[in-house]
Design brief:
By secondary structure, the protein is an alpha/beta fold. The chain has ten helices and nine strands. The chain starts with a helix and ends in a 5-residue tail after the last helix. Bound molecules: adenosine-5-diphosphoribose (APR). The site of adenosine-5-diphosphoribose has 24 residues, from loops.
């Protein structure tokens, strides 16, 4: 999935950050005046939004934005990968591995009831990103989630990149026939269906939701949009992800070196800090940090705290309340 240009781009950034680190060791701290943030905190990010008025904000999200909607994440202690013992998989991620699926589709479809619960609703974190779009400052929302809650929160399709696909549609593995979410949901919750098959008599192939399995290429739109968007990004907000899956996690590198990056997460990830599961280069724990902020907590609490600092809390509360009414009266038909 890496192309030569992208790899050399990441390598040159690595050399750059290594030289910066070396300079810091030899010549001392980088002057903090280079920072665009008045302070390396949520308040500093709020001040930046109010005073510098970024208009190409990019948001990157993972499963942590949907846990409060009742959808488990993957790698925390109660996540998907901790509760798959009954499926006798060679390893937990096999349930999303395309080569394993080809020969053993049953475990995925048995588990799909948990992965695709009915009547889920967007969370405050989803509505906060919708608020950014409503204010005309969201460039794009890159999500790893397949639950389509971004669209239930009212996001226009062109503003969202579903990097790992979504279960809005499904495709027959043999003839390519497309099926909608309603069809697949009925199959998944039908006690008499173990594996959904194509309803074309002459085909009867296995129908798989259009989510990206390990071993499958990411949607072309992921590449085309990220190449266009990230060089223009003037604020990166990362929420609810362990930043361990590539190439999504590497997007963190793709913004310019002085662009502020805010991580809202229950645990510190993606940084050079010892706890960081992988070093995607977030510098919030480094002495020479001048642009990264890590806000430790839930996505919902983090966006509410940021909305308060921006004087947006009433607007956010109204959107959440409207969503509550909308989805309590009529279940989502996405
Ligand atoms: N608020 C903030 N952070 C949270 C919350 C929450 N309510 N709930 C969980 N988290 C954090 C966890 O601590 C963890 O760091 O969100 C992160 C979720 O990480 P993962 O479970 O690894 O999920 P994600 O990063 O989305 O996984 C990426 O891996 O299995 C593949 O394709 C799958 O898209 C998925 C990809």
């Amino acid at each position: 999935m890496f192309n030569r240009e992208k790899v050399s781009n990441i390598y040159s950034k690595f050399v750059q950050s290594f030289e910066n680190a070396l300079n810091t060791v030899v010549y001392g701290e980088k002057p903090s005046t280079l920072s665009k943030l008045s302070e390396l905190s949520l308040k500093g990010v709020a001040n930046y939004i109010k005073e510098c008025k970024p208009k190409n904000v990019i948001v990157m999200t993972g499963a942590g934005t949907s846990t409060s909607a009742g959808i488990p994440d993957f790698r925390s202690s109660t996540g998907v990968y901790s509760c798959l013992q009954e499926y006798n998989l060679p390893h937990p991620q096999a349930i999303f591995d395309i080569s394993y699926f080809e020969s053993h589709p049953e475990p995925f479809f048995r588990f799909a009831k948990t992965l695709f619960p009915k009547n889920v609703k967007p969370t405050p974190a989803h509505y906060f990103v919708k608020l950014l779009e409503k204010k005309g400052i969201l460039k794009r929302w890159y999500t790893q989630n397949i639950d389509a809650l971004e669209f239930l929160a009212g996001m226009p399709e062109e503003k969202v990149v579903t990097a790992h696909g979504s279960h809005l549609t499904s495709t027959c593995r043999s003839c390519g026939k497309k099926y909608d979410r309603k069809w697949m949901t009925e199959k998944i919750f039908d006690p008499n269906t173990l594996v959904p098959h194509c309803d074309t008599e002459s085909c009867r192939g296995v129908v798989k939701p259009d989510i990206i399995f390990f071993g499958e290429a990411l949607p072309r739109r992921f590449m085309t949009c990220s190449f266009e968007d990230f060089p223009k990004c003037d604020l990166l907000i990362i929420m609810g992800t362990s930043l361990v899956v590539q190439p999504f996690a590497a997007l963190v590198h793709e913004v310019a070196d002085d662009v502020p990056r805010l991580l809202i997460n229950l645990e510190d990830v993606g940084g050079d800090s010892p706890a960081g599961a992988s070093s995607t280069g977030l510098c919030y724990a480094r002495k020479d940090n001048m642009r990264d902020v890590f806000w430790k907590g839930t996505c919902d609490e983090g966006v509410k705290a940021l909305a308060e600092l921006l004087d947006w809390e009433l607007e956010l509360q109204e959107m959440i309340a409207e969503g509550e009414v909308k989805f309590t009266t009529a279940p989502p038909n996405v």
